[in-house]
Amino acid sequence: MATTTIRRPATSTTVSKTSNRRRGDAAVWGVAALLIAAILAPVVYIVLGGFRTNSQITLDPSGLPAPWQVGNYLDVLGGSVFWTQVLNSAFAALSTTLGVVALGLAASYVLARYRFRGRGALYSLFAAGLMFPMTVAITPLYILVRELGLMNSLAGVILPQVAFALPTTIIILVPFLRAIPDEIEEASLLDGCSKLSFFWRMVVPLSMPGVVTVGILAFIASWNSYMLPLFILNDESAFTLPLGVQAFASQHSVDTARVLAFTSLSMLPALVFFSLFERRIVGGLTGAVKG
Amino acid sequence: MSSISENVRDAQGSPTGLAAEGGTVTVPPSAGRARGIGWRMRAEIALLAGPALIVFLAFVIFPVVMAAYYGFFSWQGFGPPTDFVGLRNYVTILTDPTFHDALRHNAFIMVMSLVMQGPIAIGLALLLNRKMRGQSIIRVLIFVPYVISEVVVGTGWSLMLQTTGAVNDLLGKLGLESLQRDWLSDPKIAIWTLMIIITWKYVGFAVILFLAGLQGIPEELSEAAAIDGASYWQVQRRITLPLLGPTLRIWAFLSIIGSLQLFDLVYIVWGQYVASTAGTSTMATYMVVNGRNAGSFGYGNAVAVVLFVISLIVALIYQRFVLRRDTEGATTGGKR
User: Fold this and answer.
1) CA distance B27 to B21
2) Contact predicate A61/B172, CB 8 Å
3) In CA terms, which of A4, A42, A228, A251 is 20 to 30 Å from B48?
């Protein structure tokens, strides 16, 4: 769906001046190639660095692997540290995503399609959450999580992450749910559907594009989150990947090649996940139901 | 429209309303129905919005309120805070030159983020909104830095930027020895290095937002302009960019708030001790270093409050400014 909407305007402009556009495209390609090189260089450096030895890196910091070494990657993949952290990160990210979607969708439905006193205030309360990034609340949050006995447990990371992801989620989803035409709701109410079953049967499926968007954003934010785990998780067995990368980098500070291998492996899952769903993110942010 | 849905609800609700209140047929039917629906609706609202509200209040609002409370104490973080010091923490913060430096760095980062990322992101979004081969691959690639975690970005860049690292080595190979620098510790350069890393990391997010905004602009407008003979650039400048205005303003808002709260990248690349000497410390790193790391939780919370108030003031000014601009645009548009 997203692709067709993107491509249409360009096709219509090409009709008039095809030859000009060809030349223009070449220039555009040049610029694009430069930008992509700049964007990818650091990533390539990390990935290729993992295939080198430390002496290669010291003697020729910006060189290519010669010869290629897979030992660093095999070391990391063969150890249990990396996999424990992958599991921790995956569990935290999936739970956060599920929590955000479930709580956020239900609350957004109320805010979008119920008329009641205090609705505006409730929406403003959630929206005000945008003004409280985790940075501001991190110290008392740390104390709260400690009082709840959740230190060094992933639940102590998941619950605050769900709470702090709610404002963005609600702000993205409410327009989505409002855009569902009233006629659909009226028709289903006439057919004897209650407001709750309208939610299950119509709203949840119709809002999937928006849900996918907020879900992916929540997943990636959790996968990459650093500050909260830094405060909550002190025990290495509970580390998520970002903490693991940092710990690994300081423990093996002389073993640059292995650090690079560990680092590049840790970014893989989020990259794969994102490239699979990239269309849905862009499509979902437009906040319209065209189904 | 609202009356229709009310009627629908009445028609739908009346049988259940009667069934629920079996004997109360004598009560004026409309009042009985309204009350029944009201309870039902209230229960649904509580069921649906309740969990989100509880989690939000417990883990967002409550900690923020507690930060304001703890900020009045000198407190090591164990047991209830007892050593009330009034505004002393705040006086210390506001007179600490280290904090002033951090605040200045935040302001610099805030302005430069807008100046550096805005034009690049608009250009990229317009580029990716055109039809060209390989466009979808480019789109994924541009978002790569945004998807990579701050820790990976910080670790990778700090290895590359060391004096004996890949960047200086590459400059040497290209015969540009004069450009070799101590990118991370020279206080004159470090903050620019930080800006480059920030731009590299976050420009993809701006592009995502702008692309989403571009998709919301009806194609008919640019088609009509193209038929009237407008060139590609005229269409972008006169039609696309003005219509992208709301998206641009939302992005700028998010970017400003993000700049004021910046923590991860600085803390990872420069660490807690080097950031202030290299001139890249931010209010958030100051908060963590002087709060939790120093064991002064009361003081850390006071810094959090200052950080929040500053963000709030900036946000309010921005919103007022933006609102005024939006209404001005609307009125001039109306006159034409």
Assistant:
1) 10
2) no
3) A228
Give the chain B residue whose CA is nearest to the CA of A50: B156
The whole-model pTM stands at 0.79
Which residue does chain B place closest to A222, by CA atoms? B149
CATH number (domain holding residue B306): 1.10.3720.10
Name the β-bridge partners of B84.
B73
Mutate to test the interface with A, among B6, B57, B60 (most CBs of A within 10 A): B60
Give the closest-approach CA distance of B336 to chain A in angstroms: 27
Domain identity same for B43 and B113: no
DSSP result, B294-336: TT-HHHHHHHHHHHHHHHHHHHHHHHHHHHHHHHHHHHHHHH-
Q: Which residue has the tokens 């696309």?
A: B240
- Confirm or reject CATH 3.30.70.1140 for domain A80-285, answering yes or no: no
Do B185 and B38 fall into the same domain? no
Which chain B residues are closer than 8 Å to A164 by Cβ? 59-60
288-307 in chain B: CB under 8 A from chain A: 288, 291-292, 297, 300-301, 304-305, 307
Instruction: Say if residue B108 is in the same domain as residue B60.
Output: no
Asked if B198 and B113 count as a contact pair (C-beta separation under 8 A), the reply is yes
Contacts of B122 (CB under 8 A, 6+ apart): B210, B241, B244, B248
One domain for residues B147 and B23: no
How many residues are listed for chain B in this entry? 336
In this prediction the ipTM stands at 0.81
**Could you state, in order of their start, the residue ranges of all structural domains in chain A?**
18-72, 80-285
Does B121 lie in the same domain as B34?
no
Identify whether residues B205 and B148 lie together within a single domain: yes
B18 and B113 housed in the same domain: no
CA distance A40 to B63: 39
Please, what's the largest Cα pairwise distance for chain A? 77
Tens-binned pLDDT, residue by residue, of chain B (336 aa): 333 333 333 333 333 333 333 333 343 444 444 445 578 788 888 888 889 999 999 998 898 888 888 888 888 877 777 778 878 888 888 888 989 999 999 999 999 999 999 998 888 888 877 766 667 777 778 888 888 888 888 888 888 888 777 777 788 778 777 777 778 877 888 889 999 999 999 988 888 788 878 877 777 887 788 788 777 778 777 878 888 887 888 888 889 988 998 998 899 888 767 777 778 888 999 998 888 888 888 888 899 899 989 988 988 888 787 756 654 544 343 333
Q: Count CA atoms within 13 Å of residue B99 on its CB side.
A: 20
